[in-house]
Design a protein that fits this description.
The complex is a heterodimer of chains A (297) and B (349). Chain A is mainly α. A two-stranded antiparallel sheet of chain A has the order 1-2. Helices cover 74% and strands 1% of the residues of chain B. In chain B, strands 1-2 form a two-stranded antiparallel sheet. The two termini of chain B are 23 Å apart. Chain B is built from 16 helices and two strands. Chain B has 349 residues and is an all-alpha fold. Classes of the chains: A mainly alpha (297), B mainly alpha (349).
Chain lengths: 297, 349
Amino acid sequence: MPFDASALLIQLFSGLSRAMMLFLLSAGLSLIFGVMNILNFAHATLWLLAGYVTYSFYSFLTGIAGPFGLLLVPAIVAATAVMFGVGWMLERFIIRRMYQRELPEQVLLTFALILIISDVIKLGWGVENRRIFLPIEPMEIMGSYVSPYLFVIIISGMVVAGGLWWFLQRTRYGRIVRAAVFSREMVSALGINIPNIYAGVFGMGVAIAAFCAGLFLGIMPIGLGVDMDMIIQCFAVVVIGGFGSILGTFVASIIVGVVYAFSILVWPDGSLAIIFLILVGVLIWRPWGLFGTEMRF
Amino acid sequence: MNNATKRGFWLRLYQTYGLTGPVSLVLGVAFLLVPLLPGEFPTIVAAEILILGLFAMSFNLIYGYMGQITFGHAAFFGVGAYSTALLMRALQSPVGQVGYLDFFLSLLIAMPVSALCALVVGYFCVRLTGIYFALLSLAFGELLYYLVFSWYSFTKGDDGIQGIMPPGIFSEVVNYYYLVLIVVAGCTVLLWRITNSPFGYTLRMIRDNQRRAVFLGINVRLVMLANFVLAGAFAGVAGALWGPFQRSVSPFLLGWVQSGMAVFMSLIGGAGFLTGPLVGSAIYTFLNAYITQFTVYWPLTIGLIILFLVLYLPGGVLSLLDKRLSPLKHHDYLPEDAAPEAARSGESS
């Protein structure tokens, strides 16, 4: 394994793109937990569903217009919109009944959703892996080749992170969402329709995951079972960053993504073990995460 | 007359031991008779029910009695399975045979190894409560999972370890089944003694009001740690039985999906009862084994059933039964929150 500068640089880019994927997936998880106190184990399965939906839109569009990589953009937009609706409906009809329940029952419910959604995927798309091959030429950086698509992922992730921050901090709806975290009753007393806000936040979380799934599809194959690996890494990210903290989730994604990419050079098989070692360390040292709010136990 | 004595017997059993009495008696007799059913399949399913039921009961020691939820409990199940499998591997002859003594030695090793593992994990976990307890146990569980997954030279990685044959008479399904039944029944009795000892009541106090327990001078962390280790040890026993039953072990035994199984077996059956997880295991495993014969979409079917149970039957199957029977209890006093409910169902019946 050559440890020269260009290899390290490429590993850094691949780590950062992985980090942005993790961030996009974890942001929804963290947001949903932060606002509604629901630990959604089915988040990555919804992400997987979104991947298949994107794939279908993309195949449909290329079927009409011929193979053209940029068609992934409208496909992602359409899938994101569809998944927002799916998330909204899911909150409206199922998740809504679980707010007063205890954590294990929520887990059981989202577990049931995992089973149901994966079978819906199996029914709709079969069991083969799906992937979109984009006609992109790798570009040269210091003698090594890297796909420019990695930069698309990194930039998209950062744009969404910024947009999410702007939404939560600077817009009226963002302020309402943040206020609802602290006092549901007060916000409700001000005449704001809390159930709609919750459905919207859930839909938004799923939509961000859907955006992530579309990006993911351009670089890696998806298939049943990938969601199980992803959700567990998402938990790592969200816990390291601190539940409900978007900034924390962002920083933790970068830590996890980059550490993962570099540990592949050192100990390929144990990369995930290293991530969970970090997670255990953080939980012992600061159980509320790097950017979470300290609380007493 | 005969009918009345019969009813009196069940009533006395219920009044003395709660729901655990009649449920264990019915389950015990049913499990003894399962091998009489035609074919090997029911026996195999029943063995699976028993092993996973023990695993779920050990989980419920932490959830139902201590009030903390863990998503990493399968790690101890897996560690137990792997320690038995690895030792059997080491002790067996070149043709793959293992002696009786070596076999029982391999089964016995699982308990202390899992307990030791649980001691290390639990030492850190019991400092936290609630969701942080759950997530730290999940993190440790996944750490162990990935260690087993990637330590190829020791654990054979994701290939798992195959060809773990129990020796001589135990290679027959029926005989192995009775071994499983004896071990699980023994463990259930032990668990009953533990949960109804002063230690068990201390656990319940910690569950209901941790602060009060601290004021009474109880070393809460120590009690919780002891319980965590006990739960790990029993999960290890279940794991030890699993390897020779399936003839193989794989890292997925340690994964969070396996832990999730214990969570929902406990909840389906009724986490408030000792035998609840066993009933949950019976329901889940039975559905799993028989739905697959009718449809390839069994996750969908099971998912919908779980969804229905969570939404409309919180407290599990046994709590439904208990609610119907509770007017028959001779209480010297009724807890305040239980009284109106008992009165209401008394009127309806």
